[in-house]
Amino acid sequence: MFHGGSWGAYMRSGDEKPKVTRELLLRVLNYARPYWSQIIGMLVMILISTGLSLITPLIFRQMIDKVLPSKDLHSLLLLAIALLFVPILNGVTSVIQRRLNVQVGEGVIYDLRVALFSKLQRMSLRFFTNTKVGEMMSRLNNDVVGAQNAISNTIVNIITNIIEAIALMAVMLTLEWKLTLVSVLILPLFIFAAQRLGGVLRDLARKQMEANARMNAHMNETLNIGGALLVKLFGRANEETNRFRQRAASVRNMGIDRAVVGSTFFMILGLVGAVGTALVYGLGGWYVIQGTFTVGTIVAFGSYLGQLYGTLQGLASAPVDFSTSMVSFERVFEVIDLPRDIPEKENAFVLQNVKGNLEFENVTFNYSVDETKLLKDVKRYGRMEDVGAVLSSAESITKRDGKEKIEEPVFLEEKMDGTSQARDVALEGISFKAASGQLVALVGPSGAGKTTVTYLIPRLYDPGSGVIRIDGTDVKEVTLDSLATAIGMVTQENYLFHDTIRTNLVYAKPEATHAEIEAAAKAANIHQFIMDLPERYETIVGERGYRLSGGEKQRIALARVILKDPRILVLDEATSHLDSESESLIQEALKRVMAGRTSIVIAHRLSTILAADLILVMDRGKIVERGTHEQLLGMGGVYNQLYETQFRGERV
User: What is the reported pTM?
Assistant: First the structure.
């Protein structure tokens, strides 16, 4: 008599309803357009199923009023067979409808996920540094499923309920219009009970979701590789277990309360329905006694009454269900509609035959964020997913104007003389040229802007002003894919997929042969190490490559870049924290990698500086000195101070 799925609708009945606009509806229908044939098939199955559901009560009526009193065995046998075949036909119809439904739903999920993933792949690094990974995963999973639910379930349920309600009312009116009116008059009691009791259930469900979100956030923070390592290093396993135990207990207790209140809720709704049923059977029984109503008719009418109450209950909750599902579409469309802050021109051309001449002309850059190009908070009605603090119960997110404050990179590292590198502008007036095949070294205090310079070359960010050219062409004029092909980059923190060494290497060149892979590994001084492993090139490197040492990961990253064979090489030398053997192997590999390429290197070692054709000394986002090693030493400035403190004791 009552649909269990309506629980969630009543739970949300007190929420502010999200707005559903005509434009949003048209866009949603556009995603359903490729599946019109399946949708029409579902409608046909719904009509057949509705018709079949009306037959069974009529069979009972015929059996009670005519067949049994007349003791007609032949008719009784036929009606009994009909009672068997109606559910069989109804079951077949339901299976077909379900298949069509799933085809539509899974098709919409596929279309939306591909569209979302494709869009996210083209967003800039700025977008990812200012967006929670969990928020993106929520859009790709929860909201896509919610959007699919709108098309394959919510809309289908609304149509089904409307058809069933019309058919049931029509049949019931033909049986007895007075009883039909009495059965409909009980509907306000449903609404009243849902509003009063649904509010209590909704609050309990919301609190349980909040507790569940805190528990999940705690698991995510402490069970990833970094969190697990931190817990072990500080010996906090028992404390984290106790904290998790408390949060899991909170979820458990609220789940029990919710189940009890939910059962009470449906019991009261059942009693309300029983009032209507009692009135109908009481009035119908009086009609039977008066001789104006048959026993079979009242039995059939009672069966229709149960179906009608379930249908009306579904229709009463339909607006909230539909509006809530539309929010998921709104959140999905927000990602698809995000403007790209690293746009590719419509007439961009492919960068070919790259020589490697690189030029920065008066480049200025800061990390300011245009919030119109980021994801905004869209309320998930009936769900609570955001958690401010993980280890404490306090809010850790700074709010500004009711919105989450986005923290930008702050340059707080110290200069060599003890003054701060803090500033508003990351880079200011950067100009230099690197001819084909030259090595340009970037040196300077931590936070001076060296890494930011390297990020601008492959357009991970775009400068606020100024121009960056490759072979005399503005990098904004060429396609992003061809620019990525021309540039190879090795950072201090090299990311490896949780896959085999071979898979991580061929990511740079999917069509690479085994001979090419081995040649790249040999050039990076990592081939012999790989061959000594039990699985060799099929060895799994682990999450983020954690099964390998820092030097091994660095050499695999170098081999990956060698396999790519770019004309411009950008290196953030990560040898300062490696053992002497790893450092020696990497330094030797670097010489081979940089040979014949234009190389921009953030130098950590004296050997790189001595080999450089040009050294750029950076401080507070500016190039304060430039020249060769000998020239800069003669200036007695920032470079001379860096040399005295960092490089003088090194052996070349």
Answer: 0.70
